[in-house]
Design goal:
GO terms for molecular function: transmembrane transporter activity. It comes from Nesterenkonia alkaliphila. With about 400 residues, this protein is mostly helical. The chain has a single domain (about 5-385), classed as Growth Hormone, Chain: A. About 85% of the residues lie in helices and about 0% in strands. The chain has 16 helices and no strands. The longest helix is centred in the first third of the chain and has 30 residues, at about 95-125. The two termini are about 30 Å apart.
């Protein structure tokens, strides 16, 4: 393949990440509309985030194992079909319980798709540029926060929150066409098997990496899940300003994703420890200064940059820790990411419901990131002991 063909193929895979990013994050911007329309509490509204995240946690390893021996392009297309079907169910949901079920089913293909797409991109780009290729695949998720999520949030506010699910289904359909025409067929490694993938999981470095991903990302979700409430009730912004708030956070995530991929090609765990420390600092400042609009927005952007640095970094690290189980190891990044999503939403909701105020989730997030720094130090020690590149 030529460099242009490789670039187009990776971009085609990234469009799937864009669709996934819209559905994962737009639900947060539309949470107030859903809560008011269906007559449920803030805590119940947070379950829409948690249900999707739990779907990813369950689906990522199960569907990745199913795809271990399958041709990767065809399997990516199959996962997109499942994704579209779940969104149509969510659009038609007659009640909150069915909507929760639709969100769970929507999350099932998430991790397996990203794992498959990341492995395809890394193989096409080659070892020297694999971090950047993975960053491009993951960038669809971040770019969704800049363009797709604000746009869909506005549509949902104007015409009803259910239209989010139709828009996402259409985006996934366009992704299928792009991948079908632009991405090459790619066979799994010779000798790949479900049993082989499972055997390779007896690896301490892999599980430390998973723990690092869970802890590292949970802090971000502790504040992002309830961002619309903080922006309106603490910062004093209007509901009409929420798309701008989401846009600012998403811009930080886009920059952080690309810089994280570039830095990961130089030092994976070095990038992780710097990013984790930055998240801790910016979270504390966000909690202290959330009542000042300009500073709140600047700090939100900084949280987005530093947290997104961890995306391609941790994806690359997990693949490195289990070279004989690439499909499953790659999927664990997304299970971890969405375990963090669920934990952050729950922890944030618990602190709010306990009467600690809307600023409290930021301090919870800072504590999680500080713990992440300690776990990263341990991961570096394990890597040095194993003679692995840091």
């Amino acid at each position: 393949m030529t460099r242009t063909q490789i670039a187009l193929a990776i971009l085609a895979l990234a469009t799937g990440g864009f669709a996934i990013g819209v559905t994962e994050f737009a639900i947060m911007g539309l949470q107030r509309e859903i809560v008011l329309d269906l007559g449920v509490s803030y805590g119940q509204g947070g379950m829409l985030v948690t249900a999707y995240a739990l779907g990813v946690v369950v689906g990522a390893p199960v569907l990745s194992l199913m795809g271990a021996k399958r041709e990767r392009k065809a399997y990516a297309l199959f996962l997109l079909v499942l994704f579209i079907g779940a969104h149509l169910l969510s659009f038609l949901a007659p009640n909150f319980e069915t909507l929760i079920a639709g969100r769970f089913l929507s999350g099932l293909p998430h991790g397996a798709y990203f794992a498959t797409a990341a492995l395809m991109g890394a193989q096409m780009a080659g070892p020297a540029k694999r971090g950047r290729a993975i960053a491009v695949v993951l960038s669809g998720l971040a770019i969704a926060n800049v363009s797709g999520v604000p746009g869909v949030t506005w549509v949902g506010q104007q015409f009803g929150w259910r239209w989010m699910f139709v828009i996402v289904a259409l985006l996934a359909g366009l992704t299928m066409l792009a991948v079908a025409f632009l991405a090459p067929r790619q066979q799994p490694p010779a000798g790949a098997s479900v049993r082989g993938e499972l055997r390779a999981l007896a690896n301490q470095r892999l599980w430390v990496g998973v723990a690092l991903s869970v802890i590292g990302f949970s802090g971000m979700f502790a504040i992002y899940t309830y961002l619309s409430h903080v922006a309106v009730e603490v910062t004093g912004l209007s509901d009409q300003a929420l798309p701008l708030v989401v846009l600012i956070f998403g811009s930080g995530m886009v920059i952080g994703t690309f810089t994280g991929g570039w830095l990961a090609d130089k030092s994976v765990l070095g990038t992780a420890i710097i990013a984790m420390a930055a998240v801790a600092v910016f979270m504390v400042l966000f909690g202290l200064l959330a009542h000042i609009p300009a500073l709140m927005l600047i700090l939100l952007f900084c949280v987005g940059v530093s947290a997104a640095n961890l995306g391609p970094t941790m994806q690359t690290h997990l693949i490195d820790t289990a070279p004989k189980a690439p499909q499953l190891a790659a999927s664990f990044h997304h299970s971890a990411f969405n375990t963090a999503n669920a934990m952050g939403a729950i922890a944030g909701g618990m602190t709010i419901d306990a009467g600690w105020g809307l600023r409290a989730p930021a301090y919870v997030g800072a504590a999680a990131a500080a713990l992440g720094v300690l776990i990263t130090i341990y991961a570096i020690w394990l890597a040095k002991r194993a003679g692995a590149k840091i």
